[in-house]
Amino acid sequence: GTSYNFQISTSPTFAALLVNISTVTSTYTPLANLPAAKTLYWRVKVNGANGPSVWSTVFNFTTP
Question: In this structure, are residues 61 and 36 in contact, taking their beta carbons and an 8 Å threshold?
Fold first, then answer.
């Protein structure tokens, strides 16, 4: 089956991870609030039948 590795970080280099999970679903909702008024960076990779993909492009968003 397919699974996903998902990371959220305060750093675009992912030096410090806020979230680092492996999941079989293509959606993710944090269980706790993310830090307020921060720019956060996220990326994902897919683990499929032919092995893991490379990490996706890094995306960012700013929390309220």
Answer: no
